[in-house]
Every structure is written in C-alpha cells, then in structure tokens.
Amino acid sequence: MVGPWTYEDTGKYYREAVKRRPSFSGRRDMLQFTDRLPSTDDWTLPVLLQLNRTLRVLYNGPFNWDAFKKIVMQHILTDDVLDALKALPEDEQIPHLVQLVLDWACWDAPKEGAWPRDLSMRRYFVKWRRCEPFYFEADTHTDEDMERAADLFLDIWMGQSPGCILRQPQVQFGEEKDFPGFTVYRVRDEAVTDAERLAAAQSKELYLNLQARGWAPERMDEPLQVGASVARPAKLPPPAGDIVICGPGMCAQCIKKRYLECRVPQDGGKPRCVACRVHKLGCEHKGKTMDALKKQSLEDDSDSREATPDPSQRSQRSGSESVVSESNKSAALTNASADSVPGPSGGRKRKSQGSRDKQKKAKRARK
C-alpha cells in the first residue's frame, strides 16, 4: 500500500478493468463478495491465514490509507465476517494484519489502554504495531506496476462466482511476518494518559451494562461517556447511607442515562434511586425491599464487575464507512510497558469510522 490511488481512483480503474474482461459474467455490484462463509467453529488458523493474504493484497497495493480503509471496512469486513472474527476465542491465534484490521474496526482499547484521538491508522499499523506494507514510489514504480498490483485484488473478486474473500492469491510481500506470534512490538504506554485509560474503562462498563439489558448500540460514533450527574435533593439523608448498586443490576433509567452507579437512599419510604427521584421517573427498585437491594449491592461488588462479556456482542464503530450487512452488501465502490509483546488477539466493539476520521482531520493533517 502507501500508493497514490484514492478510493475514487480505485473505483474508476476497476470499472474500466471489468469492461476489458468480457469473460466475467457475474452480476454482482463492484467488489461485492457473496461467498458462503465458514461456520463459526470453522474459522481455523488456515482460514484466517487465507483472509490475511487477501488483506495483504490490499495492504501491498497502490491504494492510499483512506482507500484501503474504505475497501476493508465496506467490502471485506461485512457484518458476517466481523461477527465470525468477534466470536473467536480470546486465545485464538490470529494473523497480525487480520488482528490489526479487527482492532481498528472496534472501540475496545488496545494494550495501551485507550485510543488517542489523534492516532491515525497509518501510525497504529506501521509505527505502533510494526506491520510494514509495500511502498509504491513515484520515481521507481510505473503506472503499469501499480495496475498489476491492483489487479490482484480484482482477480480475487472476479475469479470465482460468487466472489470469495478467502480465495488463495499468490504469496504476498510481508505475509510471513503476519504469522501469529512472529511480529513483536513495544506497548506505548506513554502515548496514552491516565485520564484516557479511565474514560475507556468507564465506556466499556457503560456498554456492558447496556448489553446486559439488550440495549447496547450495534455501532457507535464515539465511545460511551458517563452521563451528567444530578444534584441530590437536600431533603434526602446523607449519601453515606445509600445502597449503591453498580453494573447491570442498576435500574433501567440509570443504565439508559449512562450512570456508573445507582444510589438508593434509605429514607424509610419505598426504594427509589436518587436519579429517578430527581427526573421524576418510575424506578425499577420501587417494588423491592431494602434487604434485597443490600444483598444485590453486595453481589454486584463481588460478581458483576468480573463478568466476561460475550465477544460476539461487543459494539462496533459505525458511520459513513460502516460495514455492509448481508442484506445490503451491494454498496457501490464509487458512491502495557516497554517490553516486546506478541500481537493481541480477541474480538472488539465496532467503531464509527466516519466521525473518528472527521475529528482526527480537524486536529491535524493526515500523514
């Protein structure tokens, strides 16, 4: 990658290239992949290495970073593919480039503890995670060189009907370094502040609370933020005597308003949290006894914060570059420490690519 082709350049070239191949009889929209994917249990290392090679074809092509990102997020990481990757066991061996694409598609914090707002895809892939692409230089590579590289991905799409993202193209530059455990990198703890790590941890907790009730957003423009606190009415007893409930056991209103705790004053009346009293809303705790709430509070302290989320249900980035669902795959292309550690594994929460890009562009120009 790291070539001059924009997303629009790529669409124009591929439309013309298709016309020069009369043997292609497919009826699919541009770069629409309709292959039947393996079942969840069949995403073994050999299958993941096939996907990694397909990604390498793009990563080593003449596309700029924006074009690479859009093609991957819109045409390769469809909902079905992403769901399969997110469902992989936490200890599954994942090829390096597949892992990085999965990292970038999701809000779950990297090993550094949070995503800095000004972190570009290029810096994360190349500088932070040492995944080198093939570089096209204007003074050493001709248009023909770049077209041949671009044709490799076109061949994957056109080579079979239906198009198959797991088709085996030729061996790619740098793919041997993508084998799980080969590439090591330094975790850049100094690049993330404690405040950013705290915000990321709180966002994850808010998301898990929503997830437990079935209210978690499928994709998010931004990490979730803690809701604005409410002023405690003076007539209530001191907060030191409150029953404090955290996690999914909070009342529905506190979860929806994205609070980290639900405080129930012990004032002799029916149980009702502070937030619901201030907002004059019905509270789920109203039908419970104080003893039951106290027991629930103790259980929350020992259990709820240690719960392991279902990786296949983690939230995702969404926006102008969101993944295309199975029923809408036909979107047109043209419209830790200083120690070295192996690449991470596991699923993520989907990010909203469009909003994130706008924020980064407002802070500094793309490199």
Q: What's the short story on this structure?
A:
The protein has 367 residues and is mainly alpha-helical. It has two domains: 7-192 and 318-363, no CATH class; 219-306, no CATH class. It is 37% helix and 4% strand.
Characterize the structure shown.
With about 375 residues, the chain is mainly α. It folds into 2 domains: about 5-190 and about 320-365, no CATH class; about 220-305, no CATH class. Helices cover about 35% and strands about 5% of the residues. It has 12 helices and 6 strands. The chain has helices at about 5-20, 45-60, 65-75, 80-85, 95-105, 120-130, 145-160, 195-210, 250-255, 275-280, 290-300, 355-365, and strands at about 185, 220, 245, 260-265, 315, 340. The protein has a two-stranded antiparallel sheet. The two termini are about 15 Å apart. This is Zn(2)-C6 fungal-type domain-containing protein.
Q: Low-confidence segments, ≥5 residues, pLDDT <50? A: 319-348, 353-367
| Overall residue-averaged pLDDT value | 80
What string gives the helices and strands in order? Answer: HHHHHHHEHEEHEHHEEH
Largest sheet: 2 strands, antiparallel
Strand order across the largest sheet: 1-6
Count of folded domains: 2
Judged by helices, strands and strand pairing, the structural class is mainly alpha
Task: State Rg.
Answer: 24 Å
Instruction: Give me the count of strands.
Output: 6
Share of β-strand residues: under 5%
> Gap between N and C termini, in Å?
14 Å
Count, helices: 12
Helix residue percentage: 25-40%
**Shape by Cα distribution:** elongated
Protein name: Zn(2)-C6 fungal-type domain-containing protein
Biased composition (Basic and acidic residues): 289-308
Biased composition (Polar residues): 310-338
Region (Disordered): 289-367
